[in-house]
Amino acid sequence: MAREYAVYVNGPKGDQVCILPDEEIPSWAVDQLDERHFSDGGGVPPKNGKGSGVKAWEAYAVDNAVDFEAGATKEEIIAACDAAGVPTE
Predict the structure, then answer these.
(1) What letter does residue 33 receive in the DSSP assignment?
(2) Both 63 and 32 in a single domain?
(3) Structural domain total, the chain
(4) How far apart are CA 1 and CA 20, in angstroms?
(5) How far is Cα 45 from Cα 83, in angstroms, rounded to an integer?
(6) 28-52 residue pLDDT tens
């Protein structure tokens, strides 16, 4: 999977290490990354701040085949995702 941005991870010596998009991910860093770090995986929307609105959560729920009521609030959509076993963190 390709990354669009640099990521910072905890290095093997406890220091912070920057991995640029064109660099290979070291084996010790793999467990620190998930789908949100890759450009082809949408990942879980944030619960607060930029990108955390009801529209983002609606799209995420639809992409993950989660049913929710029309006009549902963000909190209701998150609860529906939780109930369906879809990650919300």
Answers:
(1) -
(2) no
(3) 2
(4) 13
(5) 17
(6) 988 887 766 665 446 788 899 888 8
Contact between 6 and 21 under an 8 Å Cβ cutoff? The reply is: yes
Binned at pLDDT 50, 70 and 90, residue 1 comes out as: very low
Segment 55-73, tens digit of pLDDT: 889 988 888 899 999 999 9
Residue 66 and residue 82 in one domain:
yes
Beta bridge partners of 8: 18
Burial class, 58, CB count within 10 angstroms (exposed 0-12 / middle 13-18 / buried 19+): middle
Q: Is the dihedral of CA 48, 50, 56, 61 positive or negative?
A: negative
pLDDT of residue 31: 85
Output helix, strand, coil percentages for the chain, rounded to the nearest 5: 35, 10, 60
| Structure tokens belonging to residue 56 | 């983002």
